[in-house]
Amino acid sequence: MGIFARRVLWYSEVGSTNDVAAALADQGEPEGLVVVADAQSAGRGRHGRAWASAPHAGLYMSVLVRPSPHVVGLLTIAAGVAIAQGIQAATGLRARLKWPNDLCMDGRKLAGILAEAGNSTDGVQYVVLGCGVNLMPAAYPAGVAGRATSIESELGRSVDRGLVLAECLAAFDARYRDLRSNASATVIAQWRERAGTTFGRRVEWDAAGVTRQGIAEDIDETGALLVRDGAERARVISGEVRWLP
Question: Per mean pLDDT, which range of 48-52, 67-71, 107-111 is the poorest?
Fold first, then answer.
């Protein structure tokens, strides 16, 4: 688990593991902190959406890193690779990656990642990477149930959450070391290997107040999504991408 074995805080329930990690980061907590909870009362995903966090049904965790500037842009990509590798090492399941932060099995969401940046009181930047992994079937909210799956649903048996956590942390330690040692090309290649259902699909996104559509083709060396829009190839680096039928 490398640096992520330094300090692990496990709670029965919190509002959000990201909020707990960020509060400690604000006070100068060094990187490597891991916050895990059996349940979240205010879990969230990208764009402020609620993340269903039923008690004991998922693995809800956040890690704290203090990366150099050249690493920041690829953290979500590296985390996606790491969680996919950790789940595979612990269970044998090979999840696919969908840009920018989803892990899927046959198009159904298995896990998601949320990166949030801030500055501690000493002015040093930090990033909290939160991850929710669906371990067991749960009563998902309307609109989510049809798009979600869980490790136990896919395996047809129970899973050791401690093993899933340990393997995910070990994989992220390795991918984070890759980024810091200027081996980001390795991480990007590993992401591409798991992105078979991402590339070739039609997507829609908003740019400068205009809604655009195109075919997702690749990611570049910064982790941006490359989309073919007629004769133009656009880089999508932020905002919401809507995946079309």
Answer: 48-52
